[in-house]
Amino acid sequence: MKKLLTADFALLAFIILVGSILRLVQFPDIPFMFDELSAVNRLSFDSLSELLEKGVKKDGHPAGVQVFLFYWSKLFGISEAAIKLPFIFCGIASIPLIYLLGKKWFSGTTGLLAAACLATLQFPVLYSDIARPYMSGMFSQL
Q: Can you give the pTM of this predicted structure?
C-alpha cells in the first residue's frame, strides 16, 4: 500500500511538473487578449467604490476578479507577466486539487487521470494563461 502511495505521489508530481511547464512556456511574452485589455483598462480608477460603480457594474463579469486585479496591480503593476501570474498559479494549483477530488470520489487512478487531463488539455492550459475568471473560478470550486 505504501509503495502504491509513493508511486501515485511520484506520478502526480510529474503531472504537475508537465502542467507547470505547459503553462509557463514563454510566460513573460504572452500578450494580453482583448478581454484582458478591457479588464486592465478598468484598473485605472482611484477607489474601490469607483471601480465597482464604473467598472464592475458595466462589465457583467464577477466582481471578485476585478477587485483582486485592482489591488494586485497596485502592488505588482500592469505588465502582462504581473497580471497573468496569479491565474497561472490557479491553473497549476488546480491539478493536485482535481487529483484529490477524483481520488476521494472514485479512486487514485481516476484522480491521476483527471490531473493528467487538466494538466495537458488545450483549454485548461489556455485558460490558465488568460487573466479572467476561468481558472480562478475552477480553482475556487475544487
A: 0.88
List the chain domain ranges.
34-141
Q: CA torsion, points 98, 15, 17, 94, in degrees to nearest 10?
A: -10
Please compute the mean of the pLDDT values over residues 88-99 and round it to a whole number. 96
CA distances for 22 relative to 26, 84, 117, angstroms: 9, 14, 12
Tell me the residue type at 49. Answer: S
Provide the 3-class DSSP secondary structure of residue 85: helix
- Residues 92-114 have a mean pLDDT of 95
Kindly tell me the sign of the dihedral angle through the C-alpha atoms of 90, 95, 98, 99: negative
pLDDT of residue 4: 53
